[in-house]
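Human: For the file, kindly provide a plain-text protein record giving the amino acid sequence and the backbone structure tokens, at your earliest convenience.
Assistant:
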Amino acid sequence: MWGFPLPVRALMNRIFVEKKTVHATEARHLLHDLRESLDLPGIEAVRIVQRYDVDGLTEEQFVDACRHILSEPQVDDVSASLALAPDETAFAVEYLPGQFDQRADSAAQCIQILTGQGKPFVASARAVVVRGP
């Protein structure tokens, strides 16, 4: 129809990276701050989950990037979706379009080095999952 072959486009990929419980010091500090500073004693637990959206990679390149750049297998759990228990509530914090996201830019540069290709699009957000009333 177009008269020329369309390029093969890689799909947008999303992963969620969360520190394993024993290594989740930032989540423990946030839980303490919420309980003590904001006087929210009903909060039972807090999880902090880093979300990455990556575009411009093949499936194999994305798996390599997840394993070597976006997570540390020894201390992180990685999943394709954010699972919430019935008593959990989540909210996400991310940069607005046009704002500089250093985490995403650094990840994109590292992925570029890993693949030896052009710089992929990477966006990141931080999800905070709170358990309790």
In short: Residues 1-8 have pLDDT under 50 and may be disordered. The helical segments are 25-36, 59-70, 102-115. Strands lie at 13-19, 45-55, 76-79, 88-94, 121-131.
